Amino acid sequence: GQxxxxxxxxxxxxxxxxxxxxxxxxxxxxxIQWYKQRPGGHPVFLIQLVKSGEVKKQKRLTFQFGEAxxxxxxxxxxxxxxxxxxxxxxxxxxxxxxxxxxxILRVKS
Amino acid sequence: DTAVxxxxxxxxxxxxxxxxxxxxxxxxxxxxxxxxxDSKKFLKIMFSYNNKELIINETVPNRFSPKSPDKAxxxxxxxxxxxxxxxxxxxxxSPAGVxxxxxxxxxxxxxxxx
Lengths: 109, 114
Description:
The structure holds 2 protein chains of 2 kinds.
Chain A (H helix, E strand, L loop, with lengths): L4 E3 L2 E5 L4 E6 L7 E6 L6 E6 L5 E4 L2 E5 L5 E6 L8 E9 L2 E4 L3 E6 L1
Parallel strand pairs in A: 2-11
Antiparallel strand pairs in A: 1-3, 3-8, 4-5, 4-9, 6-7, 7-8, 9-10, 9-11
Chain B lengths: L3 E4 L2 E4 L5 E7 L5 E7 L5 E8 L2 E5 L6 E7 L2 E6 L8 E8 L9 E2 L3 E5 L1
Parallel strand pairs in B: 2-11
Antiparallel strand pairs in B: 1-3, 3-8, 4-5, 4-9, 5-6, 7-8, 9-10, 9-11
């Protein structure tokens, strides 16, 4: 089935460094969602991007949707230990939400 | 109040046993889902129900049988458990299918098959 490719699989950063995860699709997406899952927790919705070239910010998090609506990124500025977890992108495929493989973020303090 | 609640949170059982996981949402949503998350964190959809009607059934073995007695509840029964069934099972809900935005996930049920 359809699946967005998400990279990197893991990222270890020093606290204060920036972090970016990317999702790429071979087809045009209608929209893309991002979720965060803390260790031992459940996925929590962060944002949905719909428009071509859209950029949205949530404090230190910046979400982008590519002009061709085939890729998206999540950038965290100046990571903190509270940012640890797995970040997933998810695309609508038919009438279901299909998740990328996720990027596991570890932050060293 | 927990929006999407699952029970039990942890389940340890022997191969060959039958077990059930229950899910309830108090958000008034029409659509509910079961996702399986394996040890590599990969989240895979299993089933989806809209207003008690099955709308998605991924290639899941027949040993897995969902049941939705009403639109606020979606249970998952698993027969003849196998080692590979060990995973975290997440229930989720959304207002009216994925097109209406975000999924609300339960806290997960960690199943360990010995």
